[in-house]
Amino acid sequence: MKVVNTIQELREMLDVLRSEGKKIGLVPTMGALHEGHASLVERSVAENDVTVVSVFLNPTQFNDPKDLEKYPRTLEADCALLESKGTSIVFAPSVEEVYPEPDTRVFSYPPIDTVMEGAFRPGHFNGVCQIVSKLFDMVQPHCAYFGEKDFQQIAVIRAMVKDMKFDLEIIPCPVIREESGLAMSSRNTLLTDDERTIAAHISRVLFESVELSSSHTVAETHRFVEDSLNVIEGLKVQYFSIVDGISLQDVADWNDSDFIVGCITVFCGATPIRLIDHVKYKG
Q1: Which of 274, 257, 273 is nearest to 265 (CA)?
Q2: Which pLDDT score, from 0 to 100, does residue 66 have?
């Protein structure tokens, strides 16, 4: 496994591999890797000749400087995990390497990027598109792997790929959960043991709501999720949306779509830590 810090070195290595006919997979990450990331890497290694994993904490997608400041940074441990999973190249550049000058590009894909995360984190998806488009240009992968935990992010990236005519396949991978049901996230490391126990209620309530939905309306299911979580000390729902899985627009009835997803963001603990998750009701 090679650890590369500059775009030039990355491109030179990949040009050689591409000339040999190698199929290249990319797994973009912000570091602080866990078994969820590992599952993406394993999938890429199984399906490609070369797997590139980027480890870059992208500042342009953080609308809250404090959130960026407290995001965990664990490059040494990340590299050990990636090597054990068969990664070919780790791309770990500096902010100055990726952004030698401010990126003033504006990406806009309404309505999918204006709801949920887009509404509560202004500029977030613009920053995501800035860095992901840069990585696609640098690596020119055949396939790129993203975790479905960031459900809305995948929809936005698909729109960006279509808009910019990138010749690659976006491959979504299932959510990996801790034994408690809590969706794996780099932010979980910021939770205390007690907060981690409390956070497990998020997935529990979501799964219970799937059972409930068979005999209750969308509005009743929505109310059940918000009320069940907000009554738990240490949890506060920022938003919960039951949406069409393609357009990400709210549905009013279970018959409105063949693909319906519930997307949620919850603040956990005294700090607090912002956690996201989703559950599929149909499709």
Answers
A1: 274
A2: 85
